[in-house]
Amino acid sequence: MDFRLTDEQLALQQTVRKFAQTEMVPQAAHYDQTGEFPRSIIESAWKVGLLNESIPAEYGGLGLDGVSACVLTEELAAGCAGMTTSMMVNTLGQTPILVSGTKEQIEKWIVPFTKEFRFSSFCLTEPSSGSDVANMSTTAKKVGDKYVLNGRKCFITNGGVADLFSVFATLDPVKGHRGICAFIVPADTPGVSAGKKEDKMGQRASNTTDVIFEDAAIPAENLLGREGEGFKIAMKTLDRTRPAIGALAVGLARSAYEHSVRYARERHAFGMPIAMFQAIQFMIADMAKDIEAARLLTYQAAWMIDQGMNASKYSAFAKCFATDAAMRVTTDAVQIFGGYGYSKEYPVEKLMRDAKLLQIYEGTNQIQRMVIAREVFKESQ
Amino acid sequence: MANEVLVLAEQRAGNLKKISLELMGIGAELAAKLGADLTAVVIGNGVEGLAKALGAAGAKKVYVGETGEKYYNTEIYTQAVSDLIKQTQPSVVLAGATALGRDLTARVAARVGAGLATDCTELRIENGKLVMRRPVYSGKAYIELESTAPVAIASVRPNTYGPAAQDASRSAEVVKIDVKAVTPRAVVKEIVKTAGDKPDLTEAEIIVSGGRAMKAAENFKILHEMADVIGATVGASRAAVDSGYAPHSMQVGQTGKVVNPKLYFAVGISGAIQHLAGMRTSKVIVAINKDPDAPIFQKADYGIVDDLYTVVPLLTQEFKKLLAE
Amino acid sequence: MKIVVIIKQVPDTETKIKVKADGSGIETDGIKYVVSPYDEFAIEEGLRLKEKLADDSTVTVVSVGPERTIESIRTALAMGADDAIHVNDPALEGGDSLATARVMAKAIKDHGFDIVFAGKQAIDLDQAQVGPAVAELLDIPQVNVVAKFELAADKTKATVSRRIEGADELIEVSLPALLTCEKGLNEPRYASLPGIMKAKKKPVKQVDLAALGFNASEVGAAGSHVKILKWLPLPERQAGKILKGMETQAAVKELVRLLREEAKVI
């Protein structure tokens, strides 16, 4: 087993790191403070080919393998977690189409992303159904050769900027998860609108809004897979994208860790750099160890998905472990910086605020543990 | 033929540049140790009159080359200097590490097969040979070199050495040298001034630089006021430039200008390693910053931990008083 | 047009440079290597020229260096260069700028060239000598520290702007010529991900001394005109006199006094 990155992955890492450090880092605090959407930065990333990395080569995409995508995501996240979430959700919004779409659907809806700069979005969560996906109340009704959608999704990343939505709606709430369908919904469909922008604790560069459907009619051919397959498609999508979230957490944690190491060397107390104190050393050691463990878990999960293996448990390992680690690491970073850590003049308090969302979105870490336990007991039957 | 220490005197528009006198100063020291004659060569249009100043600065012989051209030209000057070196075989040739000096010495060294060290910050004679010290890795380390060829060429950083004393009682033998009619393939058409009347940052003796703490371009006004009083040029850190408080031409640092003033004020500058790379050879560094932990204080010779907005105007007043005396 | 770009692989600018205890060089363990930053401007300008010409012009990257240099060559290829020449031979070890320029010039001559771009200096040794030396050896005009470049319509000459102290020289240079590039000439593009994938397939010619027709006495330390005697770390600065906890006016007065009487700089 060769744990080293290939030459190509190293080259990829170098270019993305340079982009993130040059284009994202200097602006991160500004977008965090104003909550403005960093459209131009994300467009620059698109121009360098850093977005839409999962689109297969046969459709004009890079067809980047999972591990390389993790390397890419980690470097972007070390630049700014919020911007990276926006960039990664592009992939999240495309994935339902990539995993369950017909060739025609992929050509029609995915290929344009390789030709021009546009955003996609993934509409699953609702005010009353986050973890309890099957309890959604956005409905789809077949009317002639169209489906008419009604309802409201919330906490939708890229909701206010997307050109394309992957939307999950139910034909019949009584049927629970078996009633859910997945739809391709262009943003300019009449009846589709973005609601208020969320004023978030962290990852403020990411655009998060409600997406409202009022008698929004879409052609029947925009259905993904068959009626009732929506829940499966959603879960399959999330399984696939979980390692990337893990990688995002690794990048964020690494940034906090690097700041901490630098600061511990420079800051003096009681006549010596605080890096000499065991209390600090132990925190730094735990940071380094947990980041490396998180990274390896994400690589493994990504690799398994590429091999076509059943990766539900491993994806959950990666997402849960890495995001919990990011929360610990960023919290310790603020602690190491002491008073300065609490001030907006220094970069670490943003990192701590950014980290919290990672434990919540893309399936809460409680859901991740449920998935793991379920897989464990399934296997032990 | 006596050994020579040959100074490539630089002039612009018929005036000797300050670096030329600095080279004469160190040149005299080296020549004395080598038991060689200090000579100089000046090339340009209507430059014969400059031989007087070079003689007063200690040159025994001044070679004068009339180009009939208004502007410096790489090929013409390279030809003239190379021919002179081949003819006189000086063991040491000194030039300024200026735009002209860098351009000329590299080409000349390749043509005559000399051992060249550029941007030297120290020159000395050891065991009868010239030892040239120069910074590497953006000033993070130094190397010392010697030439393994008969002729050593060193380009010297401006403001490293003091100018030679001018003694009008000294004069030099003037020797006219041929400037071959070379048809240059690169010709200066025009020179467009970019800065105001202040010396360029790279030539400035005193620099006042503002950092991110300046918070706005207008706030640089207080630095300009202080700079005007002490005859300084105003610079900026990369953070200030990136934030739009100052143009890139004012940037001091690794990706900006490398400066070597005798006095450098770092105002509201934290002292990141990249900034230090641009000014670490400054003779005296003064830091003004309200953060007592700013790394710049580790490198500063003097400093005040206080708000720059109160300190700088008060400093300006104090300097005014001092210089009025 | 045959556009040639000279590049050098150097330690990343963030590297903490440590001089070895015996002064024989710097510690190289764990150093990350990159394309020298000024060379990026050269690569970018070569690529822009090729794009502007929109014909069968090619951009060839040339580099002299050990095995690891290939990574930086691939970066240049990923940015868009068409092919590369990597000059690598153990005999080159210890060569100064002139020795390096000698092999560089021959490689470029063998390849053929209409214009050569290089960075104004490599940020490891900061000497700015190889470019002009190559120009001399190729017997072509040079313009250093170029901040603006424009090719004439007839492609036989170019108008460039050269940065000198406090001014810009506008120069007309006939081709072929060598230009060294200054910051501000352009904004180097990132090596895009598609570019990185394509770079793998682009040809890199590995060239050694024999291929260039040199013998060992003409290169490396034997072929050099300067010798590095030793490497030195920065001298330790004396601790500074930092005035804190003082009333502002008093601190200012004291600082001015120190600058005048002690440092003697005002």
Write a structural description.
The complex is a heterotrimer of chains A (381), B (325) and C (266). Chain A is of the alpha+beta class and 381 residues long. In chain A, 54% of the residues lie in helices and 15% in strands. Chain A has a four-stranded mixed β-sheet. Chain A is globular, with a radius of gyration of 21 Å. The model of chain A has no long low-confidence stretch (mean pLDDT 95). With 325 residues, chain B is α/β, with parallel strands linked by helices. The model of chain B has no long low-confidence stretch (mean pLDDT 92). In chain B, the strands form four sheets. Chain B has a seven-stranded parallel β-sheet, with helices on both faces. Chain B has a five-stranded parallel β-sheet with strand order 15-14-16-17-18. Chain B has a three-stranded antiparallel β-sheet with strand order 8-9-10. Chain B has helices at 18-34, 50-56, 74-88, 99-112, 221-230, 238-242, 273-279, 296-299, 308-324, and strands at 4-9, 11-12, 15-16, 37-44, 61-66, 92-96, 115-120, 122-126, 129-136, 141-147, 152-156, 173-176, 186-193, 206-210, 233-236, 263-267, 284-289, 302-305. The radius of gyration of chain B is 21 Å and the shape is elongated. With 266 residues, chain C is of the alpha/beta class. Helices cover 29% and strands 28% of the residues of chain C. Chain C contains seven helices and 13 strands. In chain C, strands 9-8-7-10-6-1-4-5-11 form a nine-stranded mixed β-sheet, with helices on both faces. The longest helix of chain C has 17 residues, at 37-53. Chain C starts with a strand and ends with a helix. The mean pLDDT of chain C is 94. Chains B and C meet through helix 3, helix 4, strand 7, strand 9 and strand 10 of B and helix 3, helix 4, strand 7, strand 8 and strand 9 of C. Strand 13 of chain B pairs antiparallel with strand 9 (167-174) of chain C.
